[in-house]
Amino acid sequence: MNIVALVGSLRKESYNRKLAEWIKGRYKDKFQLDIADIGALPHYNQDDELNPPAVVAAFKRQVAEADGILIVTPEYNWSVPGVLKNALDWLSRVDKVLVNKPVMIAGVSTGMMGTIRAQLHLRQILQSPGLAAKVLPPAGNEVLVNVASQKFDEAGNLVDAATVEFLDQVIGRFIEWVGR
Ligand SMILES: Cc1cc2nc3c(=O)[nH]c(=O)nc-3n(C[C@H](O)[C@H](O)[C@H](O)COP(=O)(O)O)c2cc1C
């Protein structure tokens, strides 16, 4: 199984990137996880969508060939970061490679709310006709990792036992969702 991750934070010490890397390691026997370089994408420009830059074409191909997509994102100002929205806007046009693609959402925040507002907004965005992704339903599957400084160790490992146990369950359901 081949999963591609979109990480909504570009910073080197990003907790969301750490979570994506941790997922890649913990479930390596279940799927291969490749983290897409969405920071390398230019700003979406409709003038270029029929003949996009090579980096955009390669990204769309990577998503098209994936069995499923994992989005791991912080919340910026109660919504999704621009870099993630930009990537989704590219995906939403011309060949629309996210349509019916299985997607799982997770997020990490430093505060209490665990990216819930961003995730609700992201679910709405993913329902738009150009994206129309097959998102893992929220009931029982909302991965909202709050107070990040208490959940990861110095090396970037997720060390909160309850969060690890919950992720094991949600990832199991995502694998089933992808296999349907
Ligand atoms: C521009 C910006 C906006 C933010 N807005 C929110 C927000 O709306 N809600 C929230 O819980 N945290 C917010 N935060 C705090 C993030 O949860 C925190 O910076 C987190 O570490 C970002 O994820 P990262 O570690 O993967 O970069 C914001 C941070 C930044 C830099």
UniProtKB/TrEMBL annotation:
<feature type="domain" description="NADPH-dependent FMN reductase-like">
    <location>
        <begin position="1"/>
        <end position="137"/>
    </location>
</feature>
<dbReference type="InterPro" id="IPR050712">
    <property type="entry name" value="NAD(P)H-dep_reductase"/>
</dbReference>
<dbReference type="GO" id="GO:0005829">
    <property type="term" value="C:cytosol"/>
</dbReference>
<protein>
    <submittedName>
        <fullName>NADPH-dependent FMN reductase</fullName>
    </submittedName>
</protein>
<dbReference type="InterPro" id="IPR005025">
    <property type="entry name" value="FMN_Rdtase-like_dom"/>
</dbReference>
<dbReference type="InterPro" id="IPR029039">
    <property type="entry name" value="Flavoprotein-like_sf"/>
</dbReference>
<dbReference type="Pfam" id="PF03358">
    <property type="entry name" value="FMN_red"/>
</dbReference>
<comment type="similarity">
    <text>Belongs to the azoreductase type 2 family.</text>
</comment>
<dbReference type="GO" id="GO:0010181">
    <property type="term" value="F:FMN binding"/>
</dbReference>
<dbReference type="GO" id="GO:0016491">
    <property type="term" value="F:oxidoreductase activity"/>
</dbReference>
